[in-house]
Predict the 3D structure of the following.
Amino acid sequence: MTPAALTLDGITKTFDKRPAVNGVGFTLEAGERIALLGHNGAGKTTLFKMILGFLQPDTGQIRIFGAEPGSAAARNAIAYLPEAVAFHKSLTGEEVLRFYARLKSEDPAAAVKLLERVGLGEAGRRRVGGYSKGMRQRLGLAQALIGNPRLVLLDEPTSGLDPISRQNFYEIIDEVAARGATVLLSSHALTEVEAKTDRIMILSKGKLVANDTLLSLREAAGLPIRLKVQGAADNADEIASRLGGKRINCRSVELLCTPSDKVSQLAAITALGPLIADVDVSLPSLDDVYRHFSGVTAKEG
Amino acid sequence: MPTRILTVAFQEFRIGLRNRWIMLAALILAAFSLALALLGSAPAGTLGVDRMTITIASLATLSVYLVPLIALLLAFDAVAGEIDRGTLLLVFSCPISRAEFLLGKALGHVCVLALALLFGYGVTAGLLIASGAGTFAGLADFARLIASSVLLGFAFLAVGYTLSSLTRQSSTAAALSIGVWLVLVVLYDLALLGALVADSSGTFAAKVFPFAILANPADAFRLFNLAALNASDLVGGMAGVGETLPFPPVAALASIFAFAALAMSLAIVLVRRIAP
């Protein structure tokens, strides 16, 4: 059996007695696309630095295809894109890629072709100093794709990208994963990764609080559907007394219900007929799901 | 792997060319050395001394001030700047060792410095030859001056890398570099002179002073070049001690080399400890 792409087991790292990463363990298989979510300071970058071998965990073990972090085998397998990398301003995009290709003992000419793939074909001969933030981020991605790495670590790769670039970015991620590489990318918002990854892990205050598909996370969260009923006149008290729920102002009432109760609850609302002016149904958003797991705000319901 | 060292070295050299560092350093060296050659050699004619020799003696003193400054300015950003830009994370995640990274930087910067010196002093040498004041023996002196200047530059590059990996912040590294330049190049000599004047018994001059000169690469450089020119009686000053030293002038060269090797090893140890 080939070893998993990445295994973390009971990883803890403490800075100045404050735990940055606390008992984190997970396994990534080949070809998986995984999103690591967490608010700023949740420990994502610390985790990446430990996987790369820059930081030593206080306890626990990390293995990259069975190799130790920072070993030659691990470094040959991993490609990394740091958060907010700024390449030297006076070099061109092509020069940057050739430089990293040579450091990785890969073919520089093949690396330059990656510029086309990330949509920087024309800008390749221009200096990085004149690139926009999105272009710099795409150059960083091209750098991470040099030489078909087996494990790609991307630290907040989509921050600062416009929606079209982001879509293009996920297409490239899909191609990389289809070749059999494992992609682990971090982000601070679930809305950014949407359904573009196979699995979502949520890191909160250094602890791994969720590790599942988006669908399962939605179900596990069990967040209520929010129905906002607007009365035809100032009759919120009457609506609230007949439907239950919470009165928001003199015309509106808010109801919370589970997905299975949604239809019957809507039927009860429409039965009120002329008392009702409008109904607004809002499903729990991705941000709500994320907040539920990361425990940033108090739980509702 | 030497290819990775060469890759980093080539990149540094390219950046040096691109942001006009080489040109700037070469122009400064050329301007100062031409000024010294054209103005400073005026009184030499009456002494009947080779004009080229006295120019080289002046250039050696110029190197003592300018070369360490240029080297420190090249080096202070080497590690701290890459941390600031986030590229150090990226480079260290590649299969390159930290020693290879720093040696590559040093090689690239040494080439930048060598090119600047070759151009800057070469212009002066060419001018002296063209005006009929130069000899082929003089050209050998020029070559020795340039080669030893490169070695002096390497010593201060290594100091710069040490400061850069120690502070991990570009601005702090820059400030410290200027401080080190001031201490090693200017204040050190003043302190030695002060000690010589204050020392009435002569034990300092005999026992400590020669080794104090050896310990500082800037002084060792001046000592080596002036002694090699046999020009101490022409230039006077500190160079006069060359004949009374308890060691041959080549020891000064070895001392610069040892200093550079020590500083470079220290920088490598420090850069290995960095968690970028």
